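In this supplementary section we document a worked example of the pipeline. Step one takes a protein sequence of length 309 as its only input; no multiple sequence alignment statistics are reported here. Step two produces a three-dimensional model, which step three serialises into structure tokens for compact storage. The input and output of this example are shown verbatim.
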Amino acid sequence: MKISLIYIVVLSILLTSCFTGVESTKKITVPEGSTSTAQSAEDAFIESYFERQGCDTWRIGKPFYYTDEKLSLVFRPERPTIPDSVSLKGKIFTYEGRIEESPFGGRKEVVLIFDCEGYKFRYETGKTWDEIRQMKYTPLIPPFIDMDDLNMARSLLKGRTLYIKTQVWYNEKSEVIGGRKLIPVKILDILPGNNLLPVEVWFEDDKGNRAGVFMSLLSSTRSQYITFDRLFSFEDPRLQYEEIQDEAWEQITLGRVKAGMTKDECKLSLGNPNEVKKIPTYSGLREQWIYNSGAYLFFVDGLLTEYRL
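The serialised model returned by step three reads:
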């Protein structure tokens, strides 16, 4: 997979998220009587099944999918070591337990032990067992994908119909392809992702097109906002915008606009503008929306009259 390309595209998404239209989709709330009416059904789903846990709760044999070709610098291999010619990508590392060591004769610090096909690896936490439990500490090992979370997501989502909120889709080679948003898709499988976004959701749209998106089940400084609730909805977004005509809705799903669309429709399609200018003219007030991508829209009396994408 072309991981470097994915990194570049994900970074561009984070920098230009206002242009995806995802953030302008209305929040879907949980049913009345729930503990929090402000929480979306998607947030509640993640909170219910994917709680962030420290490594003090790990069971012996807990599996992790490894995404890099070579061994990460955070590991210290025990002898014998895996030859440099062997690719680690796609291999499973299992948690074998912990030991406590006093490297300089002082406090005892925890070392986590992992196994990969009979080879042992050490991860030095630099923390005591009490510190790990108090902090709910989980080591940052970018090439690791938690297979327990991945399998849980697969069991909960595979075969379901969801509504996708982004038109940034990927093909089997992890290359970006043009997609549609706010449409139903059937989840075909949940697969290991990459160092940045550990989960790939593979799906099929209502026209038989197959593609995937990358995400994180839990928010982190690495994943930013590319999480399940930002990419998928359990409910049909079309039901929230019954006032929008079918022709305009089709443009919205493609991330396009056309003359005559309202501001709300354009915002759904392209996202919030980065700058808005009010321009007085002899015939009235003209409004210009400017996007960081170079696109701009002109509105008169609330309707789109000119644009460049």
